[in-house]
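Quick one: structure tokens for this chain, please?
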Amino acid sequence: MSTATATGPGETRNKLALGALGLGAFVIGTAELVIVGVLNLIADDLDVSLSTAGLLVTAYALGISIGGPIVTAATIKVPRRTLLWGALVVFVLGNLAAVFAGIFGLLVVARVLCGALHGLFLGAASAVATSLVAPEHRGQAVGLVFGGISVSTVLGVPLGTLLGQNLGWQATFAGVVVLGLVALAVIMAFVPSVASTGSTDLASQAKHAFHPRVLAMLAAEVLLMGSQFIAFTYLAAFLEDVTGIEGAAVSAFLMIFGVFSAIGTIAGGRFADINASRTLLIGNSVLIVALLGLYFFRESPLLVGVALAAWGIVGFGVTPSLQLRVISLAGEGADLGATLGASAANVGVASGAAVGGWALASFGIADVPLTALIFSVIALPAVWATRFLKVPVAQGPAAGPAPAAAASDNTPVSASS
């Protein structure tokens, strides 16, 4: 079994492997986010309220945040490529179960299972991606993987929503099953074996992955992602009930968000390689402006579209920086740390969906973006403070401080960090 060597992102084999990982991320991103577009359909069909149906978003996110690290810890010695295969196989089966779930409780269980496999896959894919390239290109590699998730908002979510509106929400999950099988075949064909990105000992991985510097970064990630999903969870309902957009036009506005998310994620990977902390701070600031515009110009379709474009660029554009910072700060615990990054993002998704449901029930759909705005402002000082977290020095006699002129916030700079 060969081991991939670290090379620049221009090598054809590694580009194909990164593309395959991005396709896998596209599938799991579609499965996670498409629920937003069919939430009304599920609520009506299964006879539950819209806010109760929103728990499906929370259930999936909790599966990622809790189940992801658990299954990662249980499989820490399994080769990463084998882990990717296995995660996708069970993920496909979970979505197949969702197709036939006739009661709300079974659908919740299926979403929790798929969420756990989502976390496992995304953590392993991030670790594999950073192993395929040279250190100075790790942000771009992570950006390509997460680009699959952002592209899912361009294609997967709008098309899945359209499919659900015409054939029923079950058809949406059936589409995910088909895509999952395609991604499995592509990953088996193109992703090579790679060396572990850290220790294969669980205790050692946990020691580094749960270091206070990593936990601080994860806390900021929860706030930043959570503030977005307060509004995003109920975005389709907001567009219909407040902005006055109907039918297929809802998919078009979701596609606007998705197109700019894809642009932001790819660009965000490059900016993450330059300075991830600065990218996060700027992204959080633009997010505040975008949510402010969404709230105050909520009855103007044109200005809502502009706000969604700005939100899309930074909302997913910060994800490569978030994931790269967590992996870098975790050091020898990178494999587990990669999953914790995905978990933290989805703790934010789960808590954001829950807070959004509370805001919906308490104040009405029009004020949900205002709640999201408040939390994004709260996140700003936490994100700013993470710039002072330093990456640990790599083990080995050759390790030493990086030259000041070349060091970024992802470069090992301090043995005492």
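Confidence is low (pLDDT under 50) at residues 1-10, 396-407, 413-417.
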